[in-house]
Amino acid sequence: MPKKRIKYIDLVKLVTIYLVILGHVIAMMVDGYSVGGRLYSFIYSFHMPLFMILSGFFVGGSVKKPFVFFLIQKTKQLLLPAITCTIIVCIYQCIFRDNYSLRDEIIGNSWFLKTLFIYYILFYILKKIPINDWVLCTCSCVILYIVPMGTTLQINLLFPFFWMGYFFKKYEVLDKCYGKSMYAISFSLLFAFCYYMQLHMNIPNYISINIDTIHTMWNHIIFRYIVAFTGSMTFILWTIILYKYCGTQRIISQLSEYGKWTLGIYVLQTILVVNVFPDVLPLYVGNELLFNVVVAPILSIFFLYLCIVIIKISSRNRVLDILLYGGQYNH
Question: Left, alpha or beta for 280 (phi > 0: left; psi -120 to 50: alpha)?
């Protein structure tokens, strides 16, 4: 029996994957990941932590499965699409680009899926230890902060947000906040203030967490977690309010349905937006306001729609569904 969907969570997931596409469109249209535009900086202040909260939301049920079954399932759902995406991108770059690094692509391509796979395995092992969840969370995060290579693929940075999603589900946090505008307004104001202070203090969105930075930049690290958390909550709560009051409308209901395709959208946008788009359609818009408010958002909607169409068509083939989407859409 397929698990029951929480439609407002699916809508949040669709909004989040749209932000991922929007960030990548901006990066590819300006100067890659060194881009410093205001909209880009705003998105990257919280969107990947938000994705990790959503990913951890349903992890609790996974630990009840036998480990071998669990390992095979997550390998199929997460690693196989990451491997397929990496192979496609490597072939594309070998054919169409003169300057490329296969090593960097093999490591970094679809990094979110690889990190998520590690989190699932680590969480499964941790939950077999008969210790309080809060102790497990604290100890595991601290260990990841100090062990060598913990910064690889942002593993130590995002693990607290994965735990956060688990706690949200365990304590029914989002159900208790459902549709309450006062929470959304409060988090919005707090996020606006904290993000303003981050900009004012020149704190970067990404801080590599290790023993040295914990010692010298601990206050900046804590501040970044606060910004990412309040930003995530702001977008979660406002999207839930949108669903509460408009969920019966056809367009919102349909959009929430597409939210269950975020993995496939993530894989396809990695191929199309991050790789093909800057080669095939190199655009430049000199006006930042026009770029941020009109061009980039509209292009991102187009790519989101394109990914949805491709998923609808390609997932009909069981082999493609397994290779690209972990076999999740062909039923």
Answer: alpha
Domain with 60 in it: 7-325
Nearest CA-CA partner of 263 in 319, 315, 318, 301: 315
Q: Is 290 exposed, middle or buried (0-12, 13-18, 19+ CB in 10 A)?
A: exposed
Sequence-ordered list of residues with C-beta below 8 angstroms from that of 131, at least 6 positions apart, any chain: none
Residue 56, both tokens: 């951890």
3-state helix, strand, coil in the chain (%, to 5): 80, 0, 20
Under the banding of pLDDT at 50, 70 and 90, the label for residue 247 is confident
* Residues 161-183 pLDDT 10s: 999 999 999 999 999 998 899 99
Distance CA 163, CA 111 (A): 19
* pTM metric for this prediction: 0.93
Asked if residue 331 belongs to a domain, the reply is no
Handedness of CA 195, 200, 201, 204 (dihedral sign): positive
Q: Give domain status of residue 2, yes or no.
A: no
CA distance 46 to 41: 9
Sign of CA dihedral 232, 233, 234, 239: positive
pLDDT at 20 over 90: yes
